[in-house]
Design a protein that fits this description.
This protein has ten helices and ten strands. It is α/β, with parallel strands linked by helices. The strands form two sheets. The protein has a six-stranded mixed beta sheet with strand order 6-7-8-3-9-10, sandwiched between helices. A four-stranded antiparallel beta sheet has the order 2-1-4-5, covered by helices on one side. β9 and β10 form a beta hairpin. α3 crosses α5, α5 packs antiparallel against α6 and α6 packs parallel to α7.
C-alpha cells in the first residue's frame, strides 16, 4: 500500500462566469484530508462547473489550494500532475483496449519518456494494486468496452489511482448503476479515502446517506448548507430546494 498522507482542499471565493452568467458565485469550501465529501444540489447548481474550475477546465477567480499548492491559474495537465484527478458524468475509458492496457496508459501519462522506456514487462506494482482495489484483478485482459457499466466507472477510478491522484473528484459515479454496483462503489470510496481525499457529486440520496462523511449543498452557484448528512437533511433551506425533487425519502 502507498503511505502518503492525504492533503485537504481549500476553496475561497470561487467564481466562474459564462458570458455574464454566474455559474459559481463565490464559493468557500474546505474538505479535510481523507474526507468523503458529497456535493449535492439541483440541476444547474454549479457542481460540475466547480469541479471544472478546480481541475483547470474552466477559468475561475478566487483561490483553490490543494495542500500548500494554489491550483487556480495552472493548466489542466499540471493540476493532474499535482495529484488532482476527476471523472466525468460519462465514463471515459478506452473501450477497445483491455483493463490492464487502460491502467498502463494512465500510469504512463504522468511519467517522463525515459521512465517509460525503462519499464519492465511485468505489471507495475501500482497497476497491480489498483486492479485489486477496483475489484478487477480477475479480468486484466478483458476489453474495457465489454465491462459492465459499474466496472467501467471503477476502471476510471483505477486510472486516477495509478496516476497518483490524491484528490479524487467524481462526477455522479453511481448514475445508472445497479444496487450491488452502488454498494461496491461505496466500499471502493471508503478504501480509496484511507490515504486520499474524495469529493463526490451525486444525486442519489440513498447512496449519500450511506457513504457521505460530510455534505455540501450547492444552489444557484452558492453554498446553501453544509455539515453532516443529518444536519443537511434537517436544514429547512435544503428541504425547500429539494421539495418535489426528493420528497418522501427522508432518513
Ligand atoms: N460552458 C458553459 N457555457 C455556458 N453555461 C454553462 C457552461 N457550463 C455550465 N453552464 C451553466 O452553468 C450552470 C451550472 O452548470 P453545472 O453543469 O455546473 O451544473 P450541475 O450542478 O453540475 O448540474 P447537473 O446536476 O445537471 O449536472 C448551468 O446553468 C449551466 O447551464
Ligand atoms: Mg453536473
Amino acid at each position: 500500500m502507498s503511505e502518503q498522507r492525504p492533503d485537504g482542499l481549500r476553496i475561497r471565493d470561487l467564481r466562474v462566469t459564462f458570458d455574464g452568467f454566474t455559474a459559481v458565485g463565490g464559493v468557500d469550501l474546505d474538505v479535510a484530508p481523507g474526507d468523503i465529501r458529497f456535493l449535492i444540489g439541483p440541476n444547474g447548481a454549479g457542481k460540475t462547473t466547480l469541479v471544472d474550475a478546480v481541475t483547470g477546465l474552466v477559468r475561475a477567480t478566487g483561490s483553490v489550494r490543494f495542500g500548500d499548492t494554489e491550483l487556480l491559474g495552472r493548466d489542466v495537465h499540471r493540476i493532474a500532475r499535482l495529484g488532482v484527478g476527476r471523472t466525468f458524468q460519462t465514463a471515459a475509458v478506452f473501450e477497445e483496449l483491455s483493463v490492464l492496457q487502460n491502467l498502463d496508459i494512465a500510469a504512463g501519462a504522468g511519467r517522463s519518456w525515459w521512465s517509460l522506456a525503462r519499464r519492465r514487462r511485468r505489471t507495475p506494482d501500482e497497476v497491480a494494486e489498483a486492479l485489486e482495489t477496483i475489484g478487477l484483478a480477475d479480468r486484466p485482459d478483458q476489453l474495457a468496452g465489454t465491462l459492465a457499466h459499474g466496472q467501467k466507472q471503477w476502471l476510471e477510478i483505477g486510472m486516477l489511482l495509478v496516476q497518483n491522484a490524491r484528490l479524487l473528484l467524481l462526477d455522479e459515479p453511481v448514475a445508472g448503476m445497479s444496487h450491488d454496483e452502488r454498494d461496491a462503489t461505496g466500499a471502493l470510496l471508503e478504501t480509496v479515502s484511507r490515504d486520499r481525499t474524495v469529493v463526490v457529486i451525486e444525486h442519489d440520496m440513498d447512496f449519500l446517506r450511506r457513504f457521505a462523511r460530510t455534505v455540501t449543498v450547492l444552489h444557484a452557484g452558492r453554498v446553501l448548507s453544509e455539515g453532516s448528512v443529518a444536519q443537511v437533511q434537517a436544514d429547512p433551506r435544503v428541504q425547500e430546494v429539494y421539495l418535489g425533487v426528493d420528497s418522501g425519502t427522508e432518513a
